[in-house]
Write a structure and sequence with these properties.
Chitinase A, domain 3; alpha+beta; six-stranded antiparallel sheet
């Protein structure tokens, strides 16, 4: 998850984003009855959450004190069983946080809502506490969940204040809308319309396996090459967005054994999709220029010259792969990032300082 990690782990009793202890759930399993919670089965102590999934929720707080235990429920279940959340998924979720301060009273937490920023969260299930994951596993995409964390104890409040952290009043409430999911080993759909070849590397990828990249003895191209192997039908990737990708990278130059083993690959991490901001300098220039403007659902062959990667020499690369690099990238998804925080406006009534006051104070201090 790239934002609001603390919001998904409050209160302090659940601050650690521990790896879920749930076991692996086979895809052919369907949602057990005890996880299928209709409205009639929700705990009556939960706040009422109204509105459509994917739109800002309306939260109505019960006329009773916030509970002193963790509560959760699925207030709206998505349709279909082909897109069920797994315990090792990367989720795209809209998240909103509220404070339940007194009977019938509560308020949104400023800056802690996807609907406020216009950008969803990326939630890695393996990094979430079990209490979060157990409520989401096996729920369909399009589901809305609500979580209630009890008020902090006096000991927890003291610990928070000592650590310089805010200690909110009342219970914390999270409303989470599951908008999409990406499982380990996910690839873009469709058959390759091109395998590359000719003066370019040849790419063969069967099903969900790691791409096989074959590079000829030709000299590499001098400029960036972007060759769509599968042209996706999604929206164009925009500068500054967060992209979710599967990728493999090799050097154009063969190693001492004459091979082209991947220097980096999501497949070496069990096919766990990678997410990063694109077009903003967070990755190499070849990725920034090569992916912006491409469509979601595309598989790209990128040939990136060293000056748009890590460098042409060992000294330039500083431990990274040297020279021209070849990538096969599946663009699984792209979502907006939140806008940058606004700088506080200067007080127009304040007189600009020329530094004289500071110099005078320094002189007085030296005289003492």
């Amino acid at each position: 998850m790239h934002r609001r990690a603390a919001a998904l782990a409050v209160p302090l009793t659940a601050i650690a984003l521990a790896v879920s202890s749930c076991g692996s759930i086979p895809d052919e399993w369907r949602t057990p009855a005890f996880l299928r919670m209709g409205e009639d089965e929700l705990d009556p102590r939960l706040p009422e959450v109204a509105g459509e999934v994917g739109e800002e929720p309306e939260v109505i707080f019960p006329d009773n004190e916030p509970p002193d235990e963790e509560l959760s429920g699925i207030v709206s279940e998505g349709s279909g069983e082909d897109e069920l959340v797994r315990n090792d998924d990367l989720l795209v979720a809209n998240v909103a946080q509220y404070q339940w301060t007194a009977p019938g009273e509560g308020e949104p937490v400023e800056g802690q809502s996807s609907y406020e920023t216009g950008a969803p969260d990326l939630v890695r299930m393996e990094q979430m506490p079990e209490y979060i994951t157990e409520g989401l596993v096996n729920q369909p995409v399009g589901s809305r969940a609500v979580f209630v964390f009890p008020p902090l104890t006096e000991e927890e409040r003291t610990q928070a204040e000592a650590a310089g952290q805010p200690a909110p009043e009342g219970a914390s409430v999270l409303v989470l809308d599951v908008m999409d999911r990406y499982n380990k080993g996910a690839v873009v759909p469709g058959e390759q319309s091109s395998n590359g070849g000719g003066d370019l590397p040849e790419v063969v990828q069967e099903g969900h396996s790691e791409p096989e990249i074959t590079i000829s003895d030709n000299d590499p191209p001098e400029d960036l090459v972007v060759e769509p192997l599968i042209e996706g039908g999604g929206a164009e990737v925009e500068e500054g967005q967060q992209v979710i990708v599967q990728y493999t990278g090799v050097r154009w130059e063969a190693d001492e054994n004459g091979g082209h083993e991947p220097f980096d690959s999501t497949w070496s991490r069990a096919g766990d999709p990678f997410d990063t901001t694109i077009g903003a300098g967070a990755v190499i220039e070849g990725w920034d220029e090569g992916m912006v403007g491409q469509t979601v659902g595309s598989r790209l062959l990128l040939v990136v010259p060293g000056d748009m990667a890590y460098g042409e020499t060992e000294e330039e690369a500083m431990g990274g792969p040297v020279g021209t690099l070849v990538f096969v990238i599946d663009i699984l998804g792209a979502v907006d990032n939140p806008p940058p925080a606004e700088e506080p406006e200067a007080d127009p009534s304040a007189e600009p300082s020329d530094g004289a006051d500071e110099e005078e104070a320094a002189e007085e201090g030296s005289e003492e």
